[in-house]
Design goal:
binds adenosine monophosphate; 4 domains; 6-stranded mixed beta sheet; 7 helices; alpha+beta; binds magnesium ion; Molybdenum Cofactor Biosythetic Enzyme, Chain A; 419 residues; Molybdopterin biosynthesis moeA protein, domain 3; Molybdopterin biosynthesis moea protein, domain 2
Length: 419
């Protein structure tokens, strides 16, 4: 009996099977999904991390009135004598932050004025106190100051009525500062997206319980729940189910009732015990299943009782990468947040690798002291330690590519994914 030789394309995609490119899967997500959450009004104190559901306009100008940018002396520029050394008599009083000067500063006089103080009538220029000599009645300084110096004009930063944030913006602490400064105390936001996480696998047991030697601890559910929390969503523990279609069906039904979206890990392939993909195909609407990505394929994107459901591979690394690459953008759309490009960096590779065409690859990576991307020693999808070792992913294109040390590669830090 002769053994047939391996074909060159023995690792190619199976004939007749459609492998959806990553970009097509992402385009489907963006096109096919829309915000599914209601809106609510929250006060600023509770607004960080929330998604704006309307555009926001300034309710007040910043600054509301012209004020001084420095501690110094204010006067009317046009009243200065045409001399190299200028002496101005001091007018009684001062303007301080929160204690404006009530009167008008007379032409040819200077008034003590402090940082943040409202510019009184009759003043259009402030000189820094370090640039003057002072005695009881006179300030003395050299000419050459610019008219309008050291002043913050009313509304120079933001004018009342100006649009400051767009719908879909996720509020950060620095955004809260702008809202507060412009008098916006309440904002309309989308309610937090509720996402249920289910893990499947007869071999799994929750950590903290005594495990038989043949059991493994469920790493995906705690990971995915914490990813959701980090992204500002309401994470719901949807339970762990053995590889039993009836149990998994019940779990999916309950999750669809309680949540806006479902993450399921395990059982997404076409194996005998892979009931997640079977159920989604036979009883749900399975839109996309085989995506050309490593680690990852297959990943199921489906509807279960109308609820968007993502079936991730059970391998923790694959579940993690798929949650970042497909789960997060999908949830962003569902949660109402604007489509924002993930920030990537071009850095030199500290590794050699060649890959075939046909699927995008993500390697666990981190930057070394020279700013080059090094990759984890194993690409094994069960190597959970590599996730903890890494600070990001190197993304290799769908096309065939050969990378040698020093070539530029795309590096995506986990912080770009909000982790
Ligand atoms: P599956 O996708 O169900 O075929 O699982 C692929 C591999 O990932 C198997 O070795 C599983 O034991 C493992 N696995 C599945 N789910 C989990 C989980 N929640 N935590 C850790 N490992 C898992
Ligand atoms: Mg399994």
């Amino acid at each position: 009996m002769t053994v047939p030789p391996l074909k060159n394309n023995c690792f190619a995609m199976p004939a007749g099977v459609e492998w959806t490119p990553v970009d097509d899967a992402l385009a489907l997500i963006k096109k096919g999904l829309h915000p599914v959450v209601a809106q609510e009004v929250v006060v600023l104190e509770l607004a960080a991390g929330r998604v704006l559901s309307t555009l926001v306009k300034a309710e007040r100008s910043n600054p509301p009135m012209a004020n001084s940018a420095v501690d110094g002396y204010g006067f009317c520029y046009d009243s200065l004598p045409a001399q190299d050394i200028i002496n101005l008599p001091l007018q009684d009083g001062a303007s301080a932050a929160g204690k404006p000067f009530a009167g008008r500063v007379k032409a040819g006089y200077a008034l003590r004025i402090l940082t943040g103080a409202v510019i009184p009538e009759g003043v259009d220029t402030v000189i820094l106190e370090e640039d003057v000599a002072i005695n009881d009645t006179l300030v003395t300084f050299r000419s050459g100051l610019r008219s309008g110096a050291n002043l913050r004009c009313a509304a120079e930063d933001v004018a009342i009525g100006q649009e400051i944030f767009n719908t879909g913006h996720i509020l950060r602490p620095q955004d809260i500062a702008l809202l507060a400064a412009t008098g916006v105390h309440k904002v309309s936001v989308y309610k937090r997206l509720k996402v249920a996480v289910i893990s499947t696998g007869t071999e799994l047991i929750a950590v903290g319980h005594p495990a038989r030697a043949d059991q493994i601890f469920d790493a995906n559910k705690p990971m995915l729940l914490n990813m959701l929390t980090a992204w500002g969503y309401q994470a719901i523990d949807g339970g762990h189910f053995k590889d039993d279609p009836d149990l998994i069906r019940d779990g999916l039904n309950a999750a669809a009732l309680n949540a806006d979206a479902i993450f399921v890990s395990g059982g997404a392939s076409a194996g005998d015990e892979d009931y997640v993909s079977k159920l989604l195909k036979e009883e749900g609407v399975l839109n996309t299943w085989r995506v050309a990505v490593k680690p990852g394929r297959p990943i199921a994107m489906a509807l279960w009782n109308g609820t968007p459901t993502f079936g991730f591979p059970g391998n923790p690394v694959a579940a993690f990468v798929c949650a970042l690459i497909f789960g997060l953008p999908a949830l962003k759309v569902l949660a109402g947040s604007a489509d924002q490009k993930v920030i990537t960096y071009q850095v030199p590779a500290a590794f050699d690798k060649s890959k075939k065409a046909g699927r995008r690859e993500y390697l666990r990576a981190r930057l070394n002291d020279n700013g080059q991307a090094e990759v984890f020693k194993s690409e094994g999808s069960g190597r959970i330690s590599g996730m903890a070792w890494s600070d990001g992913l190197v993304e290799l294109p769908d096309a065939a590519s050969t990378i040698t040390n020093g070539d530029m590669v795309t590096y995506i830090p986990y912080t770009s994914f909000g982790l």
